[in-house]
Amino acid sequence: METIGADLRQMQRTPLAPSHVAALREAGREVSYPKGAVLARAGDPMDRFTYVEDGEIEVVNPFTGERHLSSTLGPTQFMGEIAFLDGGAWSLQMRAAQETRVIEVPRETMLTLMARIPEMSDIVITVFSARRRRQLDDRDSSLQLIGEEQSRDVRRIAEFASRNRIPYTSLPLGSAAAQATASSCSIPAAEPAVIFGRDIVVTDPTPDKVARLLGLNRDLVENEAFDVIIVGGGPAGVSAGVYAGAEGLCALVVEDVAIGGQAGTSSRIENYMGFPTGISGADLVWRGEVQAMKFGTRFAMPRRVASLEQLEDGTFCAVFDTQQRVRAKAVVVATGVQYRRLPIDRLTEFEGAGVYYAATEIEARYCKGTEAIVIGGGNSAGQAAMFLSRSASCVRLLVRGSSLATSMSSYLSSRLEADPAITIEYGTEVCALAGTEQLESVTLRDTTTGATRTVPTRALFVMVGAAPNTDWLAGLVQLDPKGFVVTGAAAGANSPFATSCPGVFAVGDVRANSVKRVAASVGEGSVVISTVWSFINDGPGG
Questions:
Q1: Helices (H), 317-378
Q2: Where are the alpha helices (DSSP H) in 367-502?
Q3: Which of 68, 330, 401, 430 has the greatest number of CB atoms lying within 10 Å of its CB?
C-alpha cells in the first residue's frame, strides 16, 4: 500500500541545482552560526528557508539536550519540514553542531521562488514529505503523550494527531521513558500528560491547543477577505483547494476535525485510479493538502463554521464557533457526511472509550487482545473489518440486511467472506452496551427472532448511515428533506454544483443525489472551481 513521501535516504543525495542555489543567494542573505547555536526550537514559526553552505546542523532531543538522530544536515542540504508550506511551526529542535554558514530566505519569498522554479519546488517538497514520513514511521516528535491508554483526553490528542498525519510519541504510563520525561518536565510521573518540547505541558489538553502549538490553527484577521472559503477538508474540499490555488484564487479551507474528512478514516482505498496497491484515505488527502499549500491555499483547523451570512453587497461572512468572522466572494460547501449515532443507551458515554467512528492505525492499537465489532454494510465498514483483523483477536461484522450485494463492492465482500478471522452476521443489531469507564461488552439481537446474546468486547465501530453536515446553512440554501444541499436545475441554478443562493456551491457527499465515492468527490471539487472563478470574475451571469 502506498504511503506519503519518498525514501529520505535517497532524497538526501538529491541536491539543489547550482541555478537553484544562485536564486536562493539572490533572494536571501548569508548568515553564520557558531557551534551550539539553536537555529529552531519546537513551536517556533517556520518563517524562513535555510540552505546549508558549510558546516553541520543536528536535530536535538529537547529532554536530554543531546544529538537526537545519527544523521545530520551538511553542505548542499537544507532545513525544513512540510509545515513550511502553510506557515506552521517546527516540531523538532535544530542546532549547529559546528560553525555553520547558511543562506536564509524569508518564507514568502521562498514560496514565490518555488512557484517560479518548479524543479526546485519538486525537490524541496519531496524532501519535506520524506521527513514527515520518517517522523510518522519512527513516531518521532517533540509532541509526547503519556498515558494514552488510560486518559480519554490524551487519547483525543492521539486521534487528532494521527488523523492529521502529525507525528507524536506515545509513552505508556509508568514506563521508564514516561517517568524520565515526566521528571525532566517536573510533573507527576503517575499522571497522564501532553507535552510539547520540554517546557510546555498542556493542561486540559484539547486538539485546538495542540493545533496552536503546531501552528495549524493560527488566528485569522477579523473580517479577513478571501476569494473563496471552502468549508470541509475531505476529498472534495481539498481538491477544490488545489484547483482554487492553481487558478490564482485566494482560498481558505476550513475543517473542524481532521483533513481527510470521512475518507480519512478509511484504512485502505483500493478502487481509486492510480494506486493499484491501495492507499489510506488519510495519505491520499494529505497529498492533496500538500499540493494545495504549494499553490498558496491556506488551511484552518480545527475550526468549525457555525453559520453563514450573505451581506448586502452580495459577499458572504462565515462565522466560526469562536465568533470570529471571515469574508469571501464565494463559498464552496464540502462538509460531507458523518456516520449516524445509533439510538443505543450509553453510546455517547463510551465514545472514545470503546466506541469509535474511524478505523485507523490508532484505533487498531486499542483492539489488541479483544474482539472487534463493526456495524455497517458499506465499503468503509468492510475495509475497517479487513484492517482490524490484523490486530484484533477476531472481527465480527454486523449487517442489518440479508446481503452485502447492494451496498459493498464485490471484490471487498468476497475477501470478507473468505477471511477466517472475520465473521459476518446478517440480520443482527447491537441493542445494549455495558462497562464502567470503558466498554466491556455489547448485547446483540437477531432482528428476525428477537433472540439476544452478550459478546465481550472493548471495541465497537459504528459505520452506518450518512447524515449531512448542513445545520449551519439552514435558511440560506435549499436543502432536501434529508438535509442534503440541493443543486443544479432542482435549485433553479444553471450549474450542477450551484445552490439556490448565487455564490454558494456544493460538492461531494453533502450534495443531494451525488455519487458517494472518493473519486466522485475529488472530481466535483476540481470541476466546481471553474464555475467559482467565473462567478467571482464575471458575476452571477458569467
A1: 347-350, 361-366
A2: 379-388, 410-418
A3: 330
Nearest 5°: phi and psi at 423? -115, 130
Collapsed DSSP state (helix, strand, coil) of residue 50: strand
Cell of 324: 470570529
Q: Cα–Cα distance between 134 and 4 in angstroms, integer? A: 10
Cα distance between residue 457 and residue 439, in whole Å? 7
Type of residue at 432: A
Distance CA 88, CA 86 (A): 6
Cell numbers at residue 326, please?
Answer: 471571515
- What is the distance between the alpha carbons of residues 33 and 104, in angstroms, rounded to a whole number? 12
Say what the pLDDT of residue 1 is: 66
Contact 439, 354 (CB under 8 A): yes
Strand partners, 49: 105
Q: Cell 506519503, residue?
A: 4
| Pick from 71, 85, 70, 25: nearest CA to 52 | 25
**pLDDT grade, residue 425 (50/70/90)?**
very high
Q: How far apart are CA 210 and CA 206, in angstroms?
A: 7
**H-assigned helices in 61-168:** 107-116, 118-138, 152-163
The DSSP-derived string for 4-22 is SS--HHHHTT-PPPHHHHH
Are 86 and 293 spatial neighbours (Cβ–Cβ below 8 Å)?
yes
Contacts 24+ apart (CB under 8 A), 112-119: 113/23, 113/24, 113/27, 114/294, 115/294, 115/295, 115/296, 117/19, 117/20, 117/23, 119/17, 119/20
Look at the block and give the residue holding cell 466491556: 440
- Determine the residue type at 379: N
pLDDT at residue 476, rounded to an integer: 94
Query: Which three three-digit cell numbers place residue 244?
Result: 482554487
CB 469 within 8 A of CB 340: no
The reported pLDDT for the residue numbered 504 is 98
The answer to whether residues 94 and 43 touch, using CB atoms and an 8 Å cutoff, is: no
Q: How far apart are CA 488 and CA 69, in angstroms?
A: 55
Residue 485 is given by DSSP the state B
Q: Which distant-in-sequence residues (6+ apart) come within 8 Å of 447 by Cβ?
A: 400, 427, 428, 429
Q: Residue 539's pLDDT band (boundaries 50, 70, 90)?
A: low
Question: Of 155, 261, 284, which Cα lies nearest the Cα of 207?
Answer: 155
- How many degrees, rounded to 5, is the angle at CA 294 between CA 291 and CA 298? 95
| Amino acid letter for position 55 | G
Sheet of 57-60: strand order equals 38-40, 93-96, 57-60
* pLDDT tens per residue across span 205-228: 999 999 999 888 777 888 899 999
Q: Are 382 and 413 in contact (CB under 8 A)?
A: yes
- How far apart CA 210 and CA 217 sit, in angstroms, is 9
Strand partners, 169: 144
DSSP notation for 102-120: EEEEEHHHHHHHHHH-HHH
Spatial separation of the C-alpha atoms in residues 530 and 240, rounded to whole Å: 10
